[in-house]
Design goal:
This is MBL fold metallo-hydrolase. InterPro entries: Beta_Casp, MBL, Metallo-B-lactamas, RibonucZ/Hydroxyglut_hydro, RMMBL. It comes from Roseivirga seohaensis. One of its GO terms (molecular function) is RNA endonuclease activity. Pfam families: Beta-Casp (PF10996), Lactamase_B (PF00753), RMMBL (PF07521). With about 475 residues, this protein is α/β, with parallel strands linked by helices. The protein has two domains: about 280 residues, Ribonuclease Z/Hydroxyacylglutathione hydrolase-like (Metallo-beta-lactamase, Chain A, 4-Layer Sandwich); about 170 residues, Rossmann fold. It is about 30% helix and about 20% strand. It is built from 13 helices and 22 strands. A seven-stranded mixed β-sheet has the order 6-5-4-3-2-1-22. Helix 4 runs antiparallel to helix 5, helix 4 runs antiparallel to helix 8 and helix 6 packs across helix 7. The radius of gyration is 23 Å and the shape is globular. The mean pLDDT is about 95. It binds zinc ion. Zinc ion binds next to loops.
């Protein structure tokens, strides 16, 4: 058997992860992500898929983030008609994330039609909710650590990656005619010693390794998050205002709830209500209640006991309940999405609170260049919302260290658990600078012999005549 590899994304970029394995005539795609961020990357989503999608036999997903799963509806639309294997929690999250992504695509197309700037006439969505539903019907949920046959003579095993609920390191075992080979995909790796998620599972060997490198060039020290949050809440309330937090719906919101539950139950902050004002964050929180064994918050608690049911947490799903928060003037914490202030319900909160000097806006995540969140954080005096320049008069705070990605030290810690160097290592899912830095560390500190940073659409012969 011959095994070839082609990088259809996630090479020298953090988005669009798609790794194609060809085993003689059969094809397996690992991850099926959307390109995001810079326009030049996003346009790749519209390119003709570089091969006949009907010839792919199966897809394996490491986790549900859109940059790993968001191309699924498109590839289904292009004719892919095989099983999509992922963990149980990933399957649940996909239902929320893919439907949301499809809705966004449809809204964007409608908006483009309205504004008349689309090059398509009428404007097209990259995919629609029908495509997303079709993709969801093809998902096959798999239990962690139970090998499953994904192709004839290929098994996949999922190990907890500790990155988001359901995230996995995927190990593929290939049984050739004469030899067995093991290919490991790190997926996105989480951090060590986190309150919400478990540590990334230790892998000890592989013939070929794909390792992510999002933060391959920096350490994100998470120093006393609890203390920092307590101090920001207290100051915000001393200022006689509310604390508004734009947050990602999956993972980040639940981590914040963990911290606020602790701070409130140990009286480190004054008693107050915490409003979770995002339907996606609420659905995602509910999934953390269902998939109890996939995170650490259920440890030591009764079967129906969850910190997320804490009475001070107010889950607001409807538009009316969301609008009612605007009349709250002080001593409340409001968590809403999107995390970078690019859309969603956070917009009306910003519209209302940015100009209030008593309120505090707290960023808890990376703000990408060009986003409204980044501009506010960089100190722009006004922000244009609903066509109006809103003056930024509230206090603006920022906490680092809540990232869901392993940093440089943690990537090296995970790689350091290999008992023998992989025969071949591909450093993926990182900007060139991060990938380059990690690749140097792997070569110099661990003496790994063959470490490569592949390019978009590059191909390799992995094994011949096995
Ligand atoms: Zn991810």
């Amino acid at each position: 058997m011959d095994v070839r590899l082609k990088f259809l994304g996630g090479a020298q970029s953090v988005t669009g992860s798609k790794y194609l394995l060809e085993l003689d005539k059969r094809k397996l795609l690992v991850d099926c992500g959307l390109f995001q961020g810079l326009k030049e990357l996003r346009l790749r989503n519209w390119d003709e898929f570089p091969m006949d999608a009907t010839t792919i036999d199966a897809i394996v997903l490491t986790h549900a983030h859109i940059d790993h799963s968001g191309y699924l509806p498109r590839i289904v639309n292009e004719g892919f008609n095989g099983p999509i294997y992922c963990t149980e929690a990933t399957a649940s999250l996909l239902e929320i994330l893919l439907m949301d992504a499809a809705k966004l695509q449809e809204e964007e197309a409608e908006f483009a039609q309205h504004k008349g700037y689309s090059k398509h006439n009428p404007p097209l969505a990259l995919f629609n909710t029908q495509d997303a539903k079709k993709a969801l019907d093809m998902v096959v949920p798999i239990t962690y650590q139970e090998p499953v046959n994904v192709l004839e003579s290929v098994t996949a095993t999922f190990f907890d990656a500790g990155h988001i609920l359901g995230s996995a390191i995927v190990s593929l075992n290939i049984q050739g005619e004469t030899q067995q080979k093991k290919i490991v995909f790190s997926g996105d790796l989480g951090r060590y010693n986190q309150p919400l998620l478990k540590d990334p599972y230790a892998i000890h060997d592989a013939d070929v390794l794909f390792i992510e490198s999002t933060y391959g060039d920096r350490d994100n020290v998470a120093e006393d998050i609890e203390g920092q949050l307590a101090s920001i809440v207290k100051t915000a309330f001393d200022n006689d205002g509310c604390l508004l937090i734009p947050s990602f719906a999956v993972g980040r919101t639940q981590l914040l709830l963990y911290y606020f539950h602790r701070l409130l139950t140990t009286n480190q902050i004054p008693a107050c209500d915490v409003y979770i004002d995002s339907p996606m964050a609420i659905s995602s929180t509910n999934l953390h209640k269902i998939h109890r064994d996939d995170h650490k918050l259920s440890i030591g608690r009764g079967e129906h006991e969850s910190i997320f049911d804490y009475p001070r947490f107010k889950y607001f799903r409807t538009q009316d309940s969301s609008m009612s928060i605007n009349s709250i003037e002080r001593n409340a914490i409001i968590i809403s999405a999107s995390g970078m202030c690019t859309g969603g319900r956070i917009m009306h909160h910003l519209f209302n609170r940015l100009s209030r000097k008593n309120d505090t806006l707290l960023f808890v995540g990376f703000q990408a260049e060009g986003t409204r969140g980044r501009k506010i954080l960089d100190g722009e005096p006004t922000s244009r919302i609903y066509g109006i320049e809103v003056p930024v008069k509230c206090h603006v705070e920022h906490i680092n260290g809540l990232s869901a990605h392993a940093d440089r030290g943690e990537l090296m810690r995970w790689a350091g658990q290999f008992k023998e160097a992989p025969k071949m290592t591909f450093v993926v899912h990182g900007e060139l600078k991060s990938a380059h830095h990690l690749s140097l560390k792997l070569k110099e500190e661990l003496q790994w012999p063959n470490v490569m940073i592949p390019r978009y659409l590059e191909s390799f012969e992995l094994f011949t005549g096995i």
